[in-house]
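Appendix B. Chain record.
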Amino acid sequence: MASSHLWFARSQRIPAAIARRGLSDGRSVELEETAYRFPLENYMSREKFERIKAFGKGKETPFLVIDLDVVKANYEALRNKLPYAKIYYAVKANPRDEVVTALRDLGSCFDVASRYELDQILALGIQPERISYGNTIKKERDIAYFYEKGVRLYSTDSPSDLDKISRAAPGSRVFFRLLTEGLGADWPLSKKFGCHPDLARQLIKLAARLGLEPYGISFHPGSQQRDVGQWSTAITQAGMLFRWAREEANVQLKMLNMGGGFPADYVEPTDRLDQYAEDISRFLDNNFKDQWPEEIIIEPGRSMAGNAGTIVAEIVNIAKKSVHERYPWVFVDIGKFGGLIETLDEAIKYPIYFEGTGLAREVIIAGPTCDSMDILYEKWTYTMPEGARIGDRVYVLTTGAYTQSYSSICFNGFPPLASYILK
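Structure tokens predicted for this chain:
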């Protein structure tokens, strides 16, 4: 894997794609002595970038700029490439009212994880019929609250949760989340959510006995999933459960929820949406033949909002830890606790654009807080121009999803990440 990233960095001569300190045999990889260049056109047009720069002038960093036109285009792309799928936007990815409203007006449904998200969605005029309670970890009183508000679609993965749903939301439709490995995903979702197919069979029968409607099967292949084969494995399991339910349990399941997993544009390239859509359609054909589920759902979050956002930050300090330190530390005013928690273990590798000129210099990038884990990238190579100075602005691209909604309330007194809608 590292060698392919090295080729990508050198062939494109860009500043962020080498595992210089991550080779398995301990070798160090050297960047060529070359002028700093950043492939901005891989992420947005120069014209769009200049708009963002002008819009952010005078605003206190750090802040997130959201482009609603990109959100809308992403929705339309998903709808065009997977026309058979009903879109339930994962609100947790970016819950800004403007984002939700734009998707509401395009016809989206919504995957909601808490009563607080539910209140927001309902306040924006979205009917409960367009809402799914997709969290498998929920209090009985919260289930009752959803039911009172008119929501009738619930996810589950355990007998105890199913019992709560039967008491608090009688007669509702339930779908059963399968456990997936998340292999190939930058941000896996394994172990905590879902159940083995053997347990899913028990839950299907239990739901029917409890007076609920066993409605479908769900899975999530893992967030920022690069291996489309993970959909194949999960769809195969779902197809087997559909057939078992029909033939052995006399239950006609109607819905398949394929979760999220579609990627956004970070440093490492991925296949395009066309390829994902083509392969997933083939997997459905292979497992359901001419009897596809009556309803197919997807729950995009990252792929809907990710490349719609740009974080504007500032260099706070540039320092070395010793006279002979090879890689300078670049401290910026946003870190893990300010919205970039997905840099944990350097899982999500955001494109970071330092404006400036000069040779490309490898750096370690860290956040501003008094916590030693607030280091963004130490093992994965990032570079900046040697002409970069304290006070310069830095642009962290593809940050529209899971940034502001992840930022802490006031660690070290820093406020949550501010955001603006691009005008």
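Further analysis of this model is presented in Appendix C.
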